[in-house]
Amino acid sequence: MTADIAKAAGLLFVAAIVQVTLLSEIDVFHGAPDLVLVTLVSIALLRGTVFGAAAGFGVGLVVDTATLQTLGVTSLLLTIAGYWIGRYGETTGRDRTHAPFVSVAVVTFLYSLGVLILHYMLGDPVSASRVLLNAFPFELIFNLILTLPVYALCRRLFRPPASGLEEVQLLG
Amino acid sequence: MAGVLVLLSIALITVYFRESAGGGLHQVQSAGAAVLRPFEVAADRVSQPFRDAYNYFAGLVDAKSENNKLRKQVEQLRQQASLNLSAVGENADLRQKLHFVNSARYPNGFDYVGASIIAQPPSSLEQQILIDAGSSSGIQKDDPVVTGEGLIGTVVRAANNQSLIALLTDDATSVSAIDVKTRAPGIVKAGSSFDHVGKDLRVDSGDMLVTAGWKAEGLSSIYPYGIPIGQVTSVGQNEVDLYKHVQLQPFANFSTLSSVLVLIPKKR
Question: CB–CB of A132/A117 below 8 Å?
Answer without folding.
Answer: no
